[in-house]
Amino acid sequence: MKNLVVFASGSGSNFQAIIDSIKKERIQASITGLITNKADIGAVERAKKNSIPVRVMETEPEHEFANNLLRQFEKWTPDFIILAGFLKKIPDVIIKKFPDRIINIHPSLLPKYGGKGFYGKHVHRAVIEAGETESGCTVHYVNEEYDQGDIIDQIKVPVLPGDTPDTLAARILKQEHQLLPSVIKNLTNQK
Ligand code: GRF
């Protein structure tokens, strides 16, 4: 049985998708904890409802964040770290310590519309303004550069006439909830 530690900064619907997949035994793993930089978010509520331990951490200064994570990981012993809408940078020491063990979900077809500043609505607005006819979501390994680690898998969705950032985000989010658990399932079975 593999241990997952999830990082989230928002509503946590992707976190919920992982919880649900574990409950349905589609993923053989246990979520040993949630790391967040914000206490009053949906992801924390979801953790509490599911008796998953939560640590709220300051992310600066970076070396303290890294030390706090390393200390916490001694207890939570992650095999995989899942970034499910975590908006802060992961310290390099953590990335080095978990090579090919940290994954992130991003709401575009990377390498398009990734990198610093491309998060949430900014991504979808840019996609619509560029006149793209398709977008989607990507799960990738995390390296030292934002959204530039190797791509593991993607799902495409159409951009429809009249789409707003909100309608496009909702269409993509639905697919994120399929993609992230499916990648975790494969990884936890393989490695
Ligand atoms: C998702 O769109 C994800 O791709 C991005 O942040 C959003 C998180 O949504 N990285 P939620 O908190 O999982 O609902």
Explain what you see.
There is one protein chain. With 191 residues, the protein is an alpha/beta fold. The chain is 39% helix and 22% strand. The model has no long low-confidence stretch (mean pLDDT 97).
The total beta strand count reads: 7
Measured on Cα atoms, how large is the radius of gyration? Answer: 16 Å
Note poorly predicted spans.
none
Counted by DSSP, the helix tally is 6
Compounds present?
Answer: 5-O-phosphono-beta-D-ribofuranosylamine
| DSSP helix fraction | 25-40%
The major sheet is characterized as:
7 strands, mixed
Task: Report how far the terminal alpha carbons are from each other.
Answer: 11 Å
Secondary-structure-derived class: alpha/beta
Strand order of the largest sheet: 3-2-1-4-5-6-7
pLDDT averaged over residues: 97
- Shape type: globular
Tell me the β content: 15-25%
Elements, N to C (H/E): EHEHEHEHEHEEH
Key terms for this structure?
191 residues, alpha/beta, seven-stranded mixed β-sheet, 6 helices, 7 strands, globular, binds 5-O-phosphono-beta-D-ribofuranosylamine
Provide a compact summary of the structure.
By secondary structure, this protein is of the alpha/beta class. It contains six helices and seven strands; from the N terminus they run βαβαβαβαβαββα. The chain has helices spanning 13-23, 42-49, 62-76, 92-97, 121-129, 165-190, and strands at 2-7, 29-36, 54-56, 80-83, 102-106, 134-141, 151-158.
